[in-house]
Each structure stands twice: as C-alpha cells, then as structure tokens.
Amino acid sequence: MARYASVLDLIGETPMVDVSALSPSPNVTILTKLEGRNPAGSVKDRVALSLVEQAEADGILVPGAPDQVLIEPSSGNTGIALAMVCRMKGYHLKVVLPTNVSVERRQLLEVFGAEIIESPGSEGSNGAVRMARALAAEHPEWVFLYQYANPANPKAHYEHTGPEIFRDVPEITHFVAGLGTSGTLLGVGRYLKEQNPDIQVWAIEPPTGEMVDGLRNLDDGYIPPIFAELGGAEILDRKTVVRPRESIEWTRRMTELGLFVGISSGAIMAGAIRCAKQIPEDQEATIVTIACDDGWKYLSTGAWTEDIDTVVDRASKVIYF
Amino acid sequence: MPVSIRLPTVLRPHVAGQATVSIDGATIGEVLSTLVQQNPGLSGQVIAEDGTLNKFVNIYINDDDVRYLQQLDTPVTDGDEVSILPAVAGGAG
Q: Could you tell me which CATH number the domain at A7-37+157-315 has?
C-alpha cells in the first residue's frame, strides 16, 4: 500500500468498476466511477479542494492567518468536503443547509466543525443559494467561494476526473452524470469531447418536487452561472429527469453487485439504463457513470430496508441529490 | 392529438387556476403557442419575444428536457406528458 502525507492526497484517483451485469444489452458496457472512495465520502472532495486551493493561490484565503470565515450553500456533500478541508487548514466554515436533508449529512458537517445556518426546506437548494448570497453580501469580510459560479469547480473535473475516466476507459461512448451545480458535467464533459467529439454527455436530474411552488415568478428560476458561462447547453446532449422510485429501485439493484451507493448514484444508474436502451441493438457502446457517494449518509431514509412506497414518499420530501 | 401540459403554481393564475391543461399539436412549439393564444396572460412568460424558450423555463416531454431534443420542433404524440417548470438549482451540492 502507498503511504500518504495528508488525507488531502487521498482525493481523486477513484476506482472504476464494471456494472454491465445490470446492462439491458450485451453490446452495452456500463462502468461506474466510485467517488464515495474520496476521504470525506463524495465527488465533492475534488471540488472543495480545488475551490480552497484556488482561493489560496489567488490570495483570497491565507493559510495560517487567524479568523478566516467562509460561507457556502450546500445540500450536503460540498459542505461536508469543505468542512473537512477547512478543519485541516484552520478556516471557519458556515454552511447554509436546507432543513430537509438527511440527518447524516447534517451530522457529518458537525463532525468536521462546520457551523450550520438553516434555510427553508421548501425552497430547496435555490433557497440555500439565495440565503448564502444575501449573507455574503452583508458580510464582505467572509469568503464566499460560491461553487455554482466558481470556475475552480468544473476545473477540478476538467483536470482530474475527466482525464482519469479517459485514461481508464478510452473506448467511452457516453458519459452520464448528475446535474447539480453542473461542475462534473461541464468539466468532465468538456474534457471528454475534446478527446473525442462523438462522446455523448447525458445529464440526470431529480424532479424539482414541491420546491418550485415557492417561486414567485419564473425569473426566480436559477441557472448556475458556471453553466451559462462555460456553454453548458453545448456540452450536454440530453437532460432527463429520474424520479425517486426509479432512483431507489436502481440504488437497490446496485447492491446485487456489492455496490452500496447513495440515492443519486441510483438515479444516475437509472439514467444510464435509459441511455443504454436507446442505443441501436447492433451497436457497441460503453457508458461511464459517476457514483457520487456511498450509501452511509442515507441509511436513515430506509432506502434499502423499508417498504418502497414509504421510502419513495419520504424521498419526495428530502434532498437526496 | 391532445397532450397533457402540467403547469407550475406560478403560472396557474393565467390558466384559470388549472394545474393541467390538454392541448392539440404536432410539435411542442405548436402546443405552446396554442396554449398562449388560449391564455394570453402567459404571453412572454414561456416563450420569449424572439420566439425561443424563456431561459428560466424548462419544458419536459415525458421527463426529457426539450432543449436537448429538437427544442420547440420536438414532435409530440398523443398521450405525451408535457411539464413546464422554472429552472432550479440541482441539489447535488
């Protein structure tokens, strides 16, 4: 085994595993990249490290200086990853967290010493973004890395996740990942298309649920600034919604292969299956998906253990993506 | 061929409070322009003045975002479920 000087050196270089046993076609290979192997447990470790190191390189954060405060909206994984990085580097992190996330996500933020500021669950991630922006404007002394608008987010995926995928699976024909900040899809998607413009990029998103009911008008809608600035619409070839039932069904199916992954990974797998089904039967294809995190943070949702109708109903009310 | 269109809460006052309306058309563009003709309060909300989709609006046909199909030329068939939704941030963060 290799020996590492810091936990931060464990970020990235995640394993790729063949999950073609779940493929609907013998001609379609499906592989998934296990981002839950990152030290704070998700793909967002890459983003958190990139955001903080870029801010340090730009002189916005100064390692070792006292009383440096960061604020960030997050439904969980970015917050947890940032909390770990900030704990190690001595920065104080405030996370604006919607109230309707799993209890484990909240606890992990506390494990790494982050301060939690609650935003209304009914407003979802949009509400957290809105509140964090307002707080950052009121407190210009706080550092607002703003993952939705910070090019260091997709850059982490352009420089690392994408090259790792293409090195491990040069025959890739389709890349399927979740759409949140759009960082993974933009960074990996752009890198892959530069290597081979024929590679198709599919975005999977959860239904918006009840959170859109809180919008007063359509212009309250939100498009991550990085998506607009980096030409997201040109990088994506397809964008499709996967609902909670299908997400949980596929999260459960993945355990047949020994994979205990989070619910968004099940949603993305469901999207990969849809993608596989529309590939002509006589055509060979290789789909790569991202498993964003492991299942530990979702045990309290009963996703694997309780009646599926109960779990689906519960999943409609929490942010699991 | 009628398709069912589901509207977000914010647009329902312009369609007499209905959550779902049924409209005929061969493409999503045809369906939406009929919808706006029948409900002038929607004018400028879904389709921008230049004839493209309002950037803060996502239109889905059976869960697929039409921007990545054939945009407003995407064909619809009998029984398709169309949803009009405001763009929102995903929760992956």
A: 3.40.50.1100
Domain A7-37+157-315 matches domain A44-144 at the CATH topology level: yes
Question: Which pLDDT score is estimated for B93?
Answer: 40
Query: Is residue A42 flagged as an active site residue?
Result: no
- Class of domain B2-86 as given by CATH: alpha beta
Nearest to A127 by CA among A219, A212, A225: A212
Helix axes A77-89, A44-57, angle to 10 degrees: 50
> Measuring CA to CA, how many Å separate A178 from each of A6, A43, A166, A267, A271?
29, 11, 18, 8, 9
Task: Say yes or no: B60 contacts chain A, CB-CB below 8 A.
Answer: yes
DSSP label of A266:
H
The domain made up of A44-144 is a member of CATH 3.40.630.30: no
Interface test with B, best of A72, A204, A218 (most B CBs within 10 A): A218
ipTM: 0.89
pTM higher than 0.90, yes or no? yes
- The domain segmentation of chain B, as residue ranges, is 2-86
Residues 245-284, chain A: which have Cβ within 8 Å of B?
Answer: 264
Cα distance between residue B93 and residue A137, in whole Å: 21
A135-193 residue pLDDT tens: 999 999 999 999 999 999 999 999 999 999 999 999 999 999 999 889 999 999 999 99
